[in-house]
Design a protein that fits this description.
Length: 81
């Protein structure tokens, strides 16, 4: 299944990257030699690599910082995730 349509990254790709030691969302993008684009995949990728968990209100938390629409619209903000 595609998890990032901007860069054609699949769930298997993310799992393979994880097996190779990738442990942060920004490392996933670096692993594939791409930069984050629209940000819609970040919650899914974050959950897959374990850097994203659910808070009590059900919102995705990436390493303690909530992903907001403002964050997702600025690809440079993904560097710390």
């Amino acid at each position: 299944m595609y998890v990032c349509i901007c860069h054609a990254i699949t769930d298997r790709d993310v799992e393979d990257a994880k097996e190779q030691g990738v442990s942060r969302m920004s490392e996933v993008f670096s692993h594939f030699g791409v930069e984050p684009s629209c940000g819609r995949c970040c919650g899914t990728i974050g959950k897959m690599i374990g850097s994203c968990s659910r808070s009590t209100d059900g919102k995705c938390q990436a390493r303690g910082a909530a992903l907001s629409m403002e964050t997702m619209s600025d690809p440079a903000s993904f560097a710390d995730l």
